[in-house]
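User: Second chain of the day. Same drill as before.
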Amino acid sequence: MGQYYRIINIDKKEFLTSWTYDCGAKLMEHSYMGDDGKGNNFSGAFIQLLMDDWKGDSVVLCGDYADEWYMTKNFPELWELLVEKNPWLRKRREYDGNYYDRALYDCGDEEFGFGEDIGYKELTGIEQTDKCPRYALNFDKHECVDLYNPSLKAWDYTDEETGETRTILIFALNLLLALGNGLGGGDYHGEDEQLVGHWAGDSISLDDEIPEGFSELSVSFTEE
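Assistant: Same format as last time:
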């Protein structure tokens, strides 16, 4: 089955849901940006937040299959941090008579009694007004990624009205923050797959300059 994702700010307890921004919820349905620096509605909202209110915050792109079993196996330190900030993750949820481990994704599900009841707020109406800066910065690992690297090319797109052709890039930051990759349909499978989730839960920002002491992380996410 397909796995759905939400962008969640761990520090501010805010989140974005892709459907609210007219985008698919699977990882490789929304993780794109044009070489003009404009994301789709979902990625664009994320980009704008990282340039403004979310600058330097701890963020994850959490799949709904990234439950306690997955997290303790693959991201034990991050899981303990999440549980410390969100004790309800230790509980289980009931659905159609069955019980399931919770994923951080559930923080936005009113159906399961979460959302604003536990202090999480969905952000709507965020529009990208500025071009995405060149580098994604990780202040915990002191790493950066060039979001315009040609190795991130997904496909070329021609605007039917203007005839203008531009390149669509995989938005590498989404994949670096993703929790749950490989558990469901629509996930990423390809080059440098081992780096998916490498930045999950870290302090993130965007900038056109590389700060002193940062090393560049080379990634080559590609469309299969």
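The longest helix spans residues 41-51.

User: Great, on to the next one.
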